[in-house]
Amino acid sequence: MDQMSQALTSGTVLLRSVSIFLSNRRQSKQLKEKAEKGEKKKKGKKLTKMDEQLGKLQPKVLESLKRKTHFNKNELETLSRIYRKLVSNCPITSRQLAMNPGMMINKQSTSIEGIDRSVFRELLHSTFDIVTEEALMERIFCTWDKGFEGLPIRLEGWICGLSVFLKGTLTEKLQFCFRIYDLNNDNFITRDEMFALLRNSLMKHPGDDDETREESVKDLVEIALRKFDVDKDGKVSFLDYTTAVKADILLLEAFGQVLPTDGAVNSFLSTLQ
Q1: Contact assessment for residue 132 and residue 258, using Cβ atoms and an 8 Å cutoff
Q2: How far apart (Å, rounded) are the C-alpha atoms in residues 88 and 90?
C-alpha cells in the first residue's frame, strides 16, 4: 500500500507539474500573440496614416465614396491628395474655433481637421471662376458639407460636394442651389431672401441713390416671383423652383452665381485624369 500511495503521489505531482508547465506555455503563447497583435495594429495604423497622407483611400471608404459620387477610383484618390494639400495649409483647432463663435456649431468637437473658409473661398474664386459677393460665398461654404454647417470641410464632404459641383445631375444642382438661396433653411425662398440676394448682386450705377436702388431691387423681386412662384402663395418652394428651372435652365442661378463655369469644370476635371 505504501508503494502504491507513493506511486499515486508521484503521479499526482507529475500531472500537476505538467499542468503548470502547459499553463505557463499557454500564457506565454497568449502574451506573445497579444504582443504580435499590438505590433500589427500599430504598424497598420502607421500604414493607414501614410496612405491617407499620400491620398490613398482605405477600401471601405473608397467603395462608399464611389457609391455616393460620380467619381472613379483614380479621381477619388487624386481628390484625396488635393484635400490633404489644402488641409495642410489650414489646420483648424478647437481653440481657433472658440475664438470665432460663429464657426462653432458642433461644440463636442475638440479638434477638427478640414478646409477652412479662407482656403475654400480662394479655391472657388481662382479655380472655379466663381465671382460672387461675400454673402453667397459664405452660403456655399456652409451648404457644402451637409450636417457640418459652418465647420471646416471634411474629406467626405469635400468629395461629395465636388461630385455635385463638377458632375452633378440637374436634380442635384437644383437641390444645391436651392439650399444656398434658402438663407434661413426653412425650405422656402421668400421675398425677403430674394431681396437680400438680389440687392447684393445688383450693380450700383453712378448717380443712383439708395431709394432708387431699393425700388429697383423690389421690381426685380416681383419679376422673380412671377417666374418662380408657380402655386402663387407668395414664396418659392423647391417644387416651384424646380418647375421654373426646368422650363428655363437660365433661371438655375437667378439669385447669384453659385456654380463653376463650364470652362473651369473642364479644366479641373482634366487634372484628375
Answers
A1: yes
A2: 6
Q: Coil, strand, or helix at residue 259? A: coil
Helix ranges, 149-237 (H):
155-167, 170-181, 191-201, 210-228
Instruction: Give the CB-side neighbour count of residue 122, counting CA atoms within 13 A.
Output: 8
Q: Quick check: 218 and 143 in contact, CB under 8 A?
A: no
Residue partners of 87: CB distance under 8 A and separation at least 6: 113, 114, 115
The closest alpha carbon to 245, from 237, 253, 256, belongs to 253
111 secondary structure, DSSP code: E
Question: What pTM, to 2 d.p., does this model score?
Answer: 0.72
DSSP symbol at 150: T
Let me know: does 153 contact 82? Beta carbons within 8 Å: no
pLDDT in tens, the chain (273 residues): 555 555 545 555 555 655 665 566 566 666 666 666 666 555 444 444 444 455 578 999 999 999 999 999 999 999 999 999 998 866 544 334 334 434 433 434 435 789 999 999 999 999 999 988 888 999 999 999 877 888 899 999 999 999 999 999 999 999 999 999 999 999 999 999 999 999 877 655 555 667 777 888 999 999 999 999 999 999 999 999 999 999 999 999 999 999 999 999 999 999 888
CB atoms within 10 A of CB 253: 18
Environment class of 190 (CB within 10 Å of its CB; exposed 0-12, middle 13-18, buried 19+): middle
